[in-house]
Amino acid sequence: MPWVRFSSILRPEGVRRPCVVVPCRSSTAVHPSSPEVPMRRRPAVSLVLVLCLAAPFAATAAHSDAPQTLVPIGGGYSTESLQGFAVQAMSAGSGDTVDLYVIPSSYGDAPQDREENLALAQERTDQIEAACDDVVDLAEFSGGCEATLLPLLAREDALDPAASEGLDDPDTDGVYILGGDQVLAMHVLANSPAEERLATAYSQGAVISGTSAGNAVQSRSMGAGYPEPGYPWNALERDMSLIFWGDDLGSEERGLSFGSQQIILDQHFYERGRFGRLLSWTAQSVERYGGAGKLGVGVDWGTAPVIRDDAVITDVFGASSVALLDFSTATELDWVGPRETLSVRNVMTHLVAPDTGATYDITARAVAQDGGTVPVPERSALPPLATSGRGTLWLGGGDNDSSDSPALADFVAQAQDATRGKGKTSLLVLALGYADETDALAEVTAYTEAAAELGWTGDVDVRVHGTDAIPASVVARAAGVLVVGGDQSLMAQEVADPQLRSALSQAIQRPTSVLTDGAATAILGEQYVTDVDPTTEDEAIAMFRADEVSTAPGLGLVEGYTLEPTLTYDYRWGRLFGAAHDEPEVISLGISELTALEVTRHGATVVGERSVIAVDGSDAFWSTGSNGALGASVVWLDVFSTGDAIG
């Protein structure tokens, strides 16, 4: 049985690899505290729905040629997202009331939990009705809103026509599918009278919406979580996430029968760092279906796009933005290394934020801004990435502090070789960006112990910036220089220190092995992100706000790039886009944990367990949504994995 992992905190104190494990097909009650139904408080992000309500609603009967509308919400039950759904349902409204139905099929099918699950689902139904009543135009709908819970918890319910009675009534204006477990939801609904009635309602113009799992079922090719060893941070590996392609309508391993056949939806997208798995699924769709494959549509918490007739994405509303991953321009798609990790160039990405004038034509694979198609220019090559010296520089993405790290192993081997008759005797270890010496020395110890395990037999000279001097003379006699970084927000003094810059520059120019890791890698770039290192999902969402990511000039030892470590483990995808927004001509390069770029005079190559992501905003059209979210059209994205060359 497949399992799904959800993480509520990226790196809680004392836990290096956090996760909560729940079965993919749950048979228990879904409580409000369930990872798939997050109820945490979030900073309020305003979206003025009054503008949407300014246009009058035509209360006309639904008919067969009515627009077919999907409104997949990326997670949660924020008032704003529920009101956004209600506004769309009103636009297709008929009769004197806004008639809504709520489906709880993702909640759990165990008989002993039925009463509790129905009670919880009724609470959500009441919440949806109240949100609708808050925005309804009583001049058009004198009866207000009426939301009805359908008791579709188990397979037997969906097979009983009485349980879904009224769903396909021509007066039905909207249907909302609750969050929980999408695999369970389709086990309940697939090939049943309930699904048939849902399809009829959709064809008659009823708006189909839902959150989290209720989002996932709205694309025929449906994401189904992670297998036992899968996580967001290794999801670029081919087999580390699950998708049901939905080619066989007779199977329950799919999304809804009428769900989008053009896109693959994912939810909690920024919140849970899911770029990796959606890139993987979209790449696999290219191989499966040919051409450009399916469009990847990543929807974040409290946010939704409006998808019309499976052809146009428009009217994004809610807390954040929607990410689009388009492989129509992609080149060099491959799966590399022992883990079959995705490698691809020139993926076209867009961030669609509310009220920016951006829409997307799914069929033409084209974004429009204020009604005009945004041109796609020929892309420029990435800046060269090489050293001018004779030594090797490893740019580590963090957590290269064990003997399992290929980058650390190669670094130690070269440094040890430099002690043999070459006058080099010590391993110089520099600790940068720590709140105090105790923290610095504690973290350095893991690296020095791992170096000893890998065969280092010489002296170790540890120096903490701000406490110990770092003269050029110590670099001259070092067989290798290992630079360990703490927090990027604590690096201002290091970047401003000319002695440190000179020492690192000399080390790179000499035939000396140099390995930087974590925040120490970040400051070597032309620019670096100066914000406090993130630890929560809320921060992962906030990174995609236009004003959230702060950058400053780095040491400039790696020109043309902003370097961002710990990319996939800490869900730092937003920093790549934010830095590209701040400095569009500087490439954002995200280096995953347990991974490094090995840079020599001949170029740079990825080594280690995971991937390096390049985000190129030099051709982008940038905007800011009415909710403060970052919007962007035509942002290039590259995925480099083990053995790939960069620059």
TrEMBL record:
<keyword id="KW-0720">Serine protease</keyword>
<comment type="similarity">
    <text>Belongs to the peptidase S51 family.</text>
</comment>
<keyword id="KW-0378">Hydrolase</keyword>
<protein>
    <recommendedName>
        <fullName>Cyanophycinase</fullName>
    </recommendedName>
</protein>
<dbReference type="Pfam" id="PF03575">
    <property type="entry name" value="Peptidase_S51"/>
</dbReference>
<keyword id="KW-0645">Protease</keyword>
<dbReference type="GO" id="GO:0006508">
    <property type="term" value="P:proteolysis"/>
</dbReference>
<dbReference type="GO" id="GO:0008236">
    <property type="term" value="F:serine-type peptidase activity"/>
</dbReference>
<dbReference type="InterPro" id="IPR029062">
    <property type="entry name" value="Class_I_gatase-like"/>
</dbReference>
<dbReference type="InterPro" id="IPR005320">
    <property type="entry name" value="Peptidase_S51"/>
</dbReference>
